[in-house]
Amino acid sequence: MWQQLIERVVGLDEAAVLLPGLDRASPAGMTMIDPLHG
User: Fold this and answer.
1) What is the dihedral sign for C-alpha 14, 19, 21, 23?
2) Cβ neighbours for 25, distance < 8 A, ≥ 6 positions apart
3) DSSP codes joined into one string, 1-38
4) Which phi and psi (to 5°) does residue 20 adopt?
5) N or C: the chain end with fewer CB closer than 10 Å?
6) 38 touches 14 (CB < 8 A)
7) Residue 31 confidence (pLDDT)
8) Predicted pLDDT of residue 34
9) Which long-range contacts (CB under 8 A, 24 or more apart) does 25-29 make?
10) Distance from first CA to last CA of the chain, Å, rounded?
11) Closest CA to 5 of 31, 38, 33
């Protein structure tokens, strides 16, 4: 059920780029940061 809340999973490199804009992210779901992803 909780998987439906996650919009996308990003790695640390992508998270560093996305971090400044995460407060304006889509209300459709959350972005999970996974250090082992990609």
Assistant:
1) positive
2) 31
3) -GGGGEEEEE-HHHHHHHGGGGGG--TT-EEEE-TT--
4) -60, -25
5) N
6) yes
7) 85
8) 93
9) 29/4, 29/5
10) 24
11) 31
